[in-house]
Structures are given as C-alpha cells and as structure tokens.
Amino acid sequence: MVNCGKIFYIFVKTISNTIKLNSIIGTYECKVDAKGRLLLPAPLKKQLTASLLDGFVLKRSVFQPCLELYPMSEWNLMMNKINKLNKFVKKNNDFIRRFTAGVKVVEIDALGRLLVPKDLVAFASISKDLVLSSAVNIVEIWDKDLYENFISNDEIDFADLAEEVMGNVNDDENGIS
C-alpha cells in the first residue's frame, strides 16, 4: 500500500514529462499584490494543468520589457537547443549568460497564485495591473500600460510584419500558406 503513492507519482511524472504543450490561447488581465503574487485566471490555469506538477521557469524577455513564463517541458526543449551551442565560441557563452540572467524556477501554489520575484517585477516595470498574453507555448507577463502601448504602437504596421514573417510559409499539410 505504501508504494502505491510512489508508483502513481512516477506514472504522473512520466506522463507529464512526455506531454508536449501544443499552444496556449488567450490574453487575460489580472492584478498583482504588494508581495508580487498574481492569481492565474481560471481559463489560463486550466490550460496549464498538465504543467502544474513540473513547475515553470520565469525569465526576462529578450526583446520586450515583459516576463516569459515557460512550462518546464517547454523550458527543457529550449535548453536542449541552447545546449547544442558550442561553448568554446565566446558569442555563444555571452548569449547563454544573458539569456539565462535572472531565470527563476517558480510554482503555482494551491490557490493558483504565482509569486513573481522582486528583481523580475522591477525588470518588467510591473505595477498593479497585468496582462498575461499567450505567445504560442509560453505566457508573456506584462504591465498593463506597457502592453497596451506596445500593441497600439503605430510604428509597427502589422500587415507588413505578417507578410514579411509569414508570407513565405507554405504548410502543405493543412493548407495554411
């Protein structure tokens, strides 16, 4: 009887390590408290259920003043790519150091809250109101004002950007081109 719990844990751990997250959907607004805790919106938490056992990695975004929340399975895939870089090339080491700067392993507590460390709160200029925005297989965590400014930025013509990024993609499997 005592081993039953261990076997169940090993089974769930094995299943959760092999599940690949397809995509996360949605943009959600929430608040962060004075301690840096945010309550994940229920629809987002439901999408992340398979990842709750393994935990998450929270890091600074490379290109934007926001944070990126990686389910551990997605982080491990990213680390597999990064581990293929030749560490005897200085640029690669510099990249790895900067990419992993400020990285934190975080968990969602029993109440569905995520604690954002103070250094990451400062990096993303997080105040009280947040936007959690899906970015395919990760979640971006933005200060609401910064997010709205970025989305409404007139300097970026989204139609031109879409054409440049996706215009040459032709996926014969499902007709998207």
Descriptive key words:
8 strands, 177 residues, disordered N terminus, alpha+beta, globular, 21% strand, two-stranded antiparallel ribbon, 38% helix
Describe the biggest sheet?
6 strands, antiparallel
Task: Please report the distance between the alpha carbons of the first and last residues.
Answer: 55 Å
Classification by helices and strands: alpha+beta
Count of DSSP H/I helices: 7
- Averaged pLDDT, please? 85
Uncertain stretches of 5 or more adjacent residues: 1-19
* Major β-sheet strand ordering: 1-7-8-4-3-5
Morphology: globular
Instruction: Tell me the radius of gyration.
Output: 18 Å
How much of the residues is beta strand, in percent? Answer: 15-25%
Please write the string of helix (H) and strand (E) elements.
HEEHEEHHEEHEEHH
Helix content: 25-40%
Give the beta-strand count.
8
Structure description:
There is one protein chain. By secondary structure, this protein is of the alpha+beta class. The chain contains seven helices and eight strands; from the N terminus they run αββαββααββαββαα. It has helices spanning 2-18, 42-47, 72-82, 90-99, 118-123, 144-151, 158-166, and strands at 27-31, 37-39, 56-60, 67-71, 104-106, 113-115, 129-135, 138-143. The strands form two sheets. It has a six-stranded antiparallel β-sheet with strand order 1-7-8-4-3-5. It has a two-stranded antiparallel sheet with strand order 2-6. Strand 7 and strand 8 (138-143) form a beta hairpin.
Short note summarizing the structure:
This protein is of the alpha+beta class and 177 residues long. It has helices at 2-18, 42-47, 72-82, 90-99, 118-123, 144-151, 158-166, and strands at residues 27-31, 37-39, 56-60, 67-71, 104-106, 113-115, 129-135, 138-143.
